Request: fold
Amino acid sequence: MADDKDRGKGNPSLRNPGRRRFLKGVGAVGAGAALVDKLALPGEGLAEAANPNAVPAGAKLKIALEINGQKRQATVESRTTLLSAMRDHLEPAVSGPKLVCDHGTCGACTVLLDGKPVYSCLVLALDASTKKITTVEGLGSADKLSVVQQAFVEKDALMCGFCTPGFVMSVTACLNANPNATVDQVRAACQGNFCRCGTYPKIFEAAMAAKGTQHAWMQTIENAVKGT
Amino acid sequence: MADTAPKKKKIRVPKVVNGIETMVEIEVDDTGGPAWGPNDQHTLLNHRLTRVDGPVKVSGAAVYSYDVRLPGMLYGRILRSPHAHARVKKIDDSAARRIPGVHAIATVQGLRARERPDKAAGADASAKAARGKQPELPPHEVRYEGEPIAAVAAISPEIADDAIHALRADFEVLPHAVTADAAIKPDAPKVLGEGNLEEKEKKGELDKVEAALKQCDAIVEAEYRTQTIHHTCLETHGIVVDYRGRDAATVYASTQGTFTIPPDAAKALDLDESRITAIVEHMGGGFGAKWGIGMEGKLGCELSRQAKAPVKMMLARHDEFVTAGNRSGSWQKLKAGVAKDGTLVAVQARQYRLGGIGAGSQAGQPYVYSAVSSYREVYSLHTNVDSSRAMRAPGHPQASFAIESLMDELAYKIGMDPVQFRKKNLKDAAYHRQLDRGAKEIGWDRRNKVPGEGAGPLKRGIGCGVGTWGGGGRPQCKVTVTIARDGAVNVSVGTQDLGTGTRTYTRAIVAEELGLKIADVREHIGNSKLGAANGSGGSTTAASLSPAVKDAAVNARVEMASKLAQVLQAKPEEVSFRGGEVTAGGKSLRWKQACAALPATGISAHGEWKPGLSDNGVHGATFAEVEVDIETGHVRPIKIVHVQDVGLPLNRLAIESQLNGGIIQSLGMALWEGRVMDERLGVMVNPSFNDYKLPGTLEIPEIVALIDDADTRQAVIGVGEPALIPTVGAVANAVFNASGVRVRELPITPDKILMGLQPQGGTT
Reply:
């Protein structure tokens, strides 16, 4: 469930939303009922929210997201996660980041937020609106793969492929931070990613094959983004 | 052509239903067909091929069912029963219906009512229906926590969640039994109406075994338990149904069987099967659990029917744990005796399959070992838990863990080298070869001669185990290969790629036959409008599909040779295809030149499975080295060596990955994973990746997966499953060798090690 800290700092109209507006933003009546239980704080706005007919359908918020160097517009609710915004609310969708656990445990939704790897299922879309978002699509495309992506293909570091975008992001972030990372450092960097097919040994191989040259690749991406 | 009918022969082939394999006899033409040739003569097959769908998967471009988003699409969510056993008295959906953005609500009881006229097709029922007076349906009785009872469809996932929370269901809660120990009690609540114990098999002569046991030099009697394991496919079960109220629908499904979708969806949507197109472009893991559209798919179709809009109905992660299947647990009571020389004289087994409301699966004991005499009784012991489903080598790792532990105990008891003891009781020479190779690779001589010996709190040990699997093929795929005048080569079949590398070998077989590069061929799969193909269960895909691809490719080559013979002024049989050129009589044409000489319609050739191109039956041996911290009870796997025969390795790189995957899932079963049930509440207490411990990057040991090339069968055999089987027993035996603690109940967690280290302990 959404919490109400640090919300909407990128959008002046959303600063200090207040509990009343927050509940409106959360919106739909069912959530109203459910949230009243969860918040368990008596006070303004609750009566209104608890009345199913008084709350308009989740207040829609227009936000801008900078994804892979492109400014994108999305209409979301205040509780919408960055992952859901990309997959379900952007048109066309950005579906490289996968929804797997929705609880910040599996890493399949990993993206870079201002260069740092985060679980996009744990970031509210609103909170991401002031930051640079890089998804697996932003690293390279099928006909022009990044160094890490190419290494994943060459070492067979994927099987069903559903965890792969997350691992590619975690390995990329690891090598960006430490171009000479050891296998143990790659293991540590990817400890928040799960693969059920069991590609781990090949992922370690891919990371070792990519290290050293990955940094140069990221420079070319950043230059390309700056150029646009 | 001979004018006599072709000679026939009978062969035994695997038949797989919902991932569970049985052997059946079929009749096939006894004529020489295409052949693969020697395994070391291939130009593409038996090499390390990178997978052709790699680039789209690593760049996020691959579209899985979960990624499909259609105009006007609604998001479905499931309401699950919070009770292990209850009757659904009433579902009040009035609040949910008032939520703006909620477009449809369906209940399982509603589906049952809709399905009823079909089920009761008798004259009586239709007469009653005609009078508009159906007897009231008995209430929906749920038999496990998590059983779906209703579903909603809304314009966003968030609103669908709201609607689920707004549904109010009233239950009449009934008594439950969710653990084997509770369910086996005489006064236990009845899970399926009758008793909870269902006899499955009795085999052997009990009298003989009992008499033989009295003559043995050493006896071990022990109980082994294996836990319930979850598939935890990263892409959950589900479908996106594109139906807008007209006479056709497209269903995007995360499934192991493209062709299992249309019959189910047709029924759920009241359409003809031929009006359904199933799409399985990419899918995020199955491991045995994904067949047909399931209850979630039925509800998704119903929501789509009501809303006249496409619906995405993918299970949430919690749903996936509690209502999408599992590997059945086991409880095995074994007694075995040996002679001094290591001969396994007698084995007596009482085996319970713990498959919840399902039957469960468990290979019969003494599994791969030959005993002079053996007797077993096999039962399903039902509990109020979601039905087990096939899971990667269904029934085998459970049986393997128990028998490998038992064999180890017997070997230590008579003071015999566990490898020699196994070889003494394994008939098949393949095991002997593989055990010798694995022992050499891991350094078997380094093991503790006395379990638990060695100074310091970190103790290392080595153990081993073996396993078997089928992996054969049968005629069930229809493949088309086309060659166009512009040089394009396409191979089409409706099959699916679970991450096993189906796309890659399909392309490679055609490319090799035509002397081309992999990039010169395009494959089209995952569509029920393409040629028929079997579901991917029992490791039967490669062995069923690759012969049909080979047959189609050979037919395409032969047809092309006959068309080009004139151009090259040679006989068709003199035309060769190599290195991107078509050559005969000293003349060579580049591939595109050769294709330009084809008739305008190009070439379209078909292929089917042919006997002789696939085989059945593989063997594997695993050695595990572990480190046990006797102060904390923590077990760290150090190294796994697995030797596997595979017949003709279609793609060595992909096979290596499949072996790694099986080994890692087996490690999870040995050391970390397991569903935990609360007997009082009747619920699963760890239905998330936080609490269900999967193998992660920090746990993975050094893994050496070896293809046993001494197996020179020139035939394809599937090996998606077998590597999962012996690792679990090998790890348990390594733990014993390291620490002297015999853990007979999985997973081998620190508490069990510490209990075993207690002075009165030694075993748990």
